[in-house]
Amino acid sequence: MTLESHRIAFESNLEFPLDDFQRRALDAIDAGDSVLVAAPTGSGKTLIAEYAAACAISRGTKTFYTTPLKALSNQKYGDLVEAHGDIQVGLLTGDNSVRGDASVVVMTTEVLRNMIYAGSEVLDELEFVVLDEVHYLQDRFRGAVWEEVLIHLPAHVRIVALSATVSNAEEFAEWIQTVRGRTVAIIEERRPVKLTNLYAVGEKGNPDFHLLPVFMPDPADDLRPNPEAAKLDGQPTRDRAASRYPRSGGQSPSGRLFTPSRVEIIQRLADENMLPAITFIFSRAGCDAAVDQCLASGIRLTTREERRELRRIAEARTAMLSESDLVALRYDAWRIAFEAGIAAHHAGMIPPLKEAAEEAFAAGLVKVVFATETLALGINMPARTVVIEKLSKFTGEHHEFLTPGEYTQLTGRAGRRGIDDRGFAVVAWSPFVPFEQVAGLASRRTYALTSSFRPTYNMTANLVSRCDALEARHLLGLSFAQYRANSDVVALEDQLEIIGSLLEKERELMVCDLGDFVDYRALVAGTERPGDSAKRSSVENALAQMRPGSVLRTKRCGGRCVVLRHEGGRSGTRILVLGADSTLTRLGPPDFETAPQVVGDLDIPTPFAPKNPSFRRALAGRLRALKLEGEDANGDSAGSNQRGKKQKKTPPSEEFHPVSECPRLESHLRAASKADRLTKDYARLERRVQARSDNLGRMFDRVLRVLEERGYLDGWSLTASGESLMRINSETDILVADAINTGIFDGLRPQELASIASVFTYEHRGPEHRRPPAPRWPSGDLAKRWRAIERHWNSLRSDEEDAGLPEMRPPDPGLALIVKAWASGHDLSDVLDLTDDLTGGDFVRHMKQLVDLLRQISVVSENPQTKESARSAADLCFRGVVCASGVTAQ
C-alpha cells in the first residue's frame, strides 16, 4: 500500500474530519519528521499517535506507546486493541505483560527506559515512540525518565510527543530537534468545544444561588471579566458552608454571600441539563464525603434500566474480589451510590472501582464524579461540566493556589466533542479568593514546561557503564534542563557584552602616555612586587597573539579549550574560550602564571554562533576528539601554565614612577575606580553564567564522588556493586543496592523478604511535622536487619551532605507488619485492621510498587536462594485485590 493510499484509508475510518492541526501533524509524519503536538485536552491528539501506529503496522515495524501511569496504559491498550485488533497490540507494565512482541506495545515510560539501558534488540525494529502526556517530564520524582528516553533512544526512532498546551512548546520542540533530529511543533490552542466559565455564589434572600458568567459575551472572544461578578468582592459573607460540609466558610454571620453546598450545585446542574459533571475536590476524604452527602440528600440520577446496567458493570469489574475483600472495601455502600449515578475517583480507591467509574461515566450512566486532580491526567472521562470547589489545595504542609496550567488541565474535561455545543467550568465562590483571581486563572490558559532532570545514582551508573567521561558529560548537556539553562546564559551573555564594553572604555581612559598606569596603581597600593608588570605584559602579549581556533591547556576550563575571539583592548586583554564540556569561559592575565602556549588548532564551524548550543556542541566535539601529545587523563601537561600557588609578595618599590607626574592622573584614577566596580559586576555575572552552564556537570561530579566513596565506582569503572546498582530502578536505588550487596536480604523466607523490602518503597503520607507511628516488626531478626538499613541510610546521608547533594528520603518501616501478614495469606480485612490510615487503594498501590522491587531483587541478587525467595515473595504479594485489574489478554 502506498503512503497516499494508506493515509486515505486511515482518514476514511475516522468519526470526524481532520482538524487543521491534526492534518499538519500527519503531514509531518508522512514527511519523515518527529512531531510535538501541544493541544487542549479532548482535542484529538491521540489520533496522531494512532496514525503513527497504523503506519508502523502497515510497514512491518514497531511503535511503542508510552504513558506516565499504569491506569492510562491500560486504557490506551484497550483503545488500540479496538482500533487495530488484539493480535497487533501488546501491553507491558509492572502489573501486566500481554503480547510484548506485538507491532504496537503500550507501556509505562520507565519500561522503555529500562529496555534502552538493557540494550534490547527489539529497539532495532522500532520506528515510532509515542510519549503521551510528555509534559509529565516536569514531575520532580519521575520526570527525568522522559528526558533519558529522548536522549538515549536509537537515532532512527521518530518521536510523537503529545502535550498539554504549554507556553514554551516551540522551545521544547527545538530541544527535541537538537537531540532527535528534525522535529515539527504542532500547536493548537483552540478547544474543540467552546468553554463557558461560570461563578457559583449564593446570596441571602434568593431561593437559588447565582451562576454568573466569569466573562462578558464578546464577538472577538476577548475575555472581559463580568463587572457584576467583580462587584461581589468586598461583600459581607456568612458561614453557610460550614454547616453543610467541612470547608473554610465566610467571616460574618450577618453577611449576604455564601458558598453553595455540593448538593445544591449538583441539583442545579441536573435541573439545567448540565450533567454529566466532574467535581474536583483536592482531598480523598472530601470526595468520599461528597458522595455520602448526595446520597443522604436523596439525589438519584439514574433510571431503572441504567441502574441494572450499572450493577452489571460493578459485578463484572469486581468479579476477581472475594466476599471478604468486598466487605473490607465497603462495597455495598459504594454500589448504592454507583447505581444512583454518583461515584468518587481518587488514589485511595482500588483500581477495579475506579475503572468501573470510568467505564460507566464514559457510557453516560454515572452522572456525577467527585475526583481529585489525578483524574485530569490523561484518563478519558469527558464531561459536560467541570466544577472546581476550591482554587487552592493543601500540599501536606501549606495551601497553595492552582496555577493557570492546572486550571486548564482540570477544565479541559468540560465539553464532549460531537455531543456538546459547549462545555461549562463552574468555580464555587469563596470569601478568601477575589473574583479578579478567578478571572485571571480562567484567562491564562497555558504554563511554561520546565525540567526536573538531575543525575541519579542509577542513571550515573548506567552512564559510566555505557560511555566514557567526556561522552557522559556531553549526554548530560543534552538534557532539557541544560538547554533551558543555556537560554538563560544567552541573556546573561548579552549583559556581559554590555558591561564588557563599558569596562573597556574605562580601561582605555586609564592608559597613560607616560607609563604603565596599572603598574603604578598596584605599586602605590602595595599589592604587587617589582617585575610583576613585565610578567603580566608577557601574558597579555601571548593572549593578544591568540587566534580563533587556537587550542590551550588550562585547569580553569577542565583541561583543554579553544579560543573563539578576543575581548578587551590595550589594557587587560581577555579571550573567550570554549571548553570540552561546551562551556564558555573568559580568560585574562590573572588566570595564567606564565604566558599561555598554543598546543593545537581547530577549524571554527561557520556560521560563527557561540550563543547557539548546537554550535558549541559541535565545536566541543571536535575539541574532545583532538589528539594532543603529553596530556594526562585530566587534560594537564607537565608544562601547564595555570596559575598555581600565589607567590610571596614583597613590599612595593620606593622608586619614582613616571605616571605620578601625569597631568591627567585624577582622570586615570576615576576611570580605575569605575573599572573596579565594573570588574566586580562582570565577575558576578560570569559566576552566574558558570553556575548555569555546568550545574548538571557539578551535580554529576558529586554523585560520582558518593558512588566512589561507597564502593560502586573504581575510577571510571563500575565495581561488582556498581553493576547491581545499574539494574535497580527505584527512588531509593542506592540503598536497595546496599542491602543486596551486604546480604540484608539473604537467608530470609519469602514473607520476611517482602516485609523488609517494603521499607524501600513505602512512604508515610501526611505532614512532615507529624511523626509516623513507631515500627512494629514481625520478628527480632527483621528488626536487626532494619537497624542495619538505618545505618546504611545514615552513612549515605553523611556522604550526601559532604558532597553537597540533596538528601535521599529515608526508608520507612511503616508497612512491614502489614506486608508480612498479606504475604502470609491473610485477608484484606485482616490486613487493613492493622492500620488506621491506609485505604484499600493505598494498600494496592504500595503492594504493586513492592512487587516491582521484589522482581528487580530477584534479577539483581547473586545469591540463588535470595533470587528464588524474592520471586516467591513477589508472587505471594501479587494476589487478590492487588492483581485485580480491568486488563486481561484479549
TrEMBL record:
It comes from freshwater metagenome. Keywords: ATP-binding, Coiled coil, Helicase, Hydrolase, Nucleotide-binding. PROSITE patterns: HELICASE_ATP_BIND_1, HELICASE_CTER. Residues 668-695 form a coiled coil. GO terms for molecular function: ATP binding; helicase activity; hydrolase activity; nucleic acid binding. The keyword Aminoacyl-tRNA synthetase does not apply. InterPro entries: DEAD/DEAH_box_helicase_dom, Helicase_ATP-bd, Helicase_C-like, P-loop_NTPase, RNA-DNA_Helicase, SH3_HelY, Ski2/MTR4_C. GO terms for biological process: nuclear-transcribed mRNA catabolic process, 3'-5' exonucleolytic nonsense-mediated decay. Residues 651-661 have a biased composition (Basic and acidic residues). This is Unannotated protein.
